Automatic annotation (TrEMBL):
SUPFAM superfamilies: DNA breaking-rejoining enzymes
GO molecular function: DNA binding
Name the record gives this protein: Uncharacterized protein
Organism encoding this protein: Methylobacterium terricola
InterPro entries, alphabetized: DNA_brk_join_enz
Amino acid sequence: MPLDRLDRPFMVGLRNKAYATYKRRFANYVVQVLSRACGIGIGLGLLTENPVDHVEKVRKATGETSLNRPCGPRRSATRCLPSYRCRCGARSR
């Protein structure tokens, strides 16, 4: 599809379709990539304005919890690093 035929309602529909199929992260990625492509089209003179500029990203639901959990005390980052000696001979940790 040529860049000059893209408009804001089409972009919103595409974002919503990506959200329904692949969820929030991919839908926001689609918006970012198309915004960058339209920005390049403006630089090349193919577009006069960016139709993705005012398309909002899909926000995280209010009650949605984070999927990542913090590491427990047994798996902290400092315990995973190998110990090494500095130039003065002292060991780290």
